[in-house]
Amino acid sequence: MPKTGMPDIRKPQLVNATMSVIDRVGLHAASIALISKEAGLSAGIINHYFGGKHGLLEETMREILRQHGRTIQNLLKYIPPEDHQSRINAIISGNFEGYQAESKVVKVWLAFWSYAMHDIQLSRLQRVNEKRLISHLKIELKALLPSERVIPVAQGVASLIDGLWLRGALNPQGIDVAKARDIINDYLNLQLQIYAKT
């Protein structure tokens, strides 16, 4: 029987090992044996805590989403609520910088997106993530745009974030954060010039 408190140590250990193995060999080759060896634990512990590789992948993605949410919240808490454009830029930055831009996290995101097309639970996590991004953007855009433009512009910004992130993730040089931010802000500024509340 596992010692009290061990799940709090072992689960993050296994999640980190999963990311490291996916970074090194890709998702399809990331076997339970390789992950458990990376974590320095028995293969049985993965089944015990997660019910197998699929459960471990799901928990790994949940952890990335939690970190993503914390990153954006931390960026937003230092920006006054009335500075909507700076808050939008913080949301943009939170998708391209720090933890989200680490090589192993990027590779897990790519694997997650490909798996989410064929897996109900992972697809649900992707929808939650997408709705959270749109919600953050809508909160800020409501103060800047007429109500009928808020959702289309939020979806436009979100699409640019995803597309530029994907292009950067597949580029050997990685994500050019400054360029991504400039492209998204060009789009946003154009929308504001045309539709901004007067």
UniProtKB/TrEMBL annotation:
Single GO term (MF): DNA-binding transcription factor activity
DNA-binding region: 31-50
InterPro entries, A to Z: BetI_C, DNA-bd_HTH_TetR-type_CS, Homeodomain-like_sf, HTH_TetR, Tet_transcr_reg_TetR-rel_C_sf, Tscrpt_rep_BetI
Pfam name, any one: TetR_N
UniProt cross-references to SUPFAM superfamilies, sorted A to Z: Homeodomain-like, Tetracyclin repressor-like, C-terminal domain
A biological process term (GO) from this entry: negative regulation of DNA-templated transcription
Pathway(s) the chain acts in: Amine and polyamine biosynthesis; betaine biosynthesis via choline pathway [regulation]
NCBIfam families on file: betaine_BetI (TIGR03384), PRK00767.1 (NF001978)
HAMAP family named among the record's database cross-references: HTH_type_BetI
Protein name: HTH-type transcriptional regulator BetI
Originating species: Vibrio aerogenes CECT 7868
Annotated gene: betI
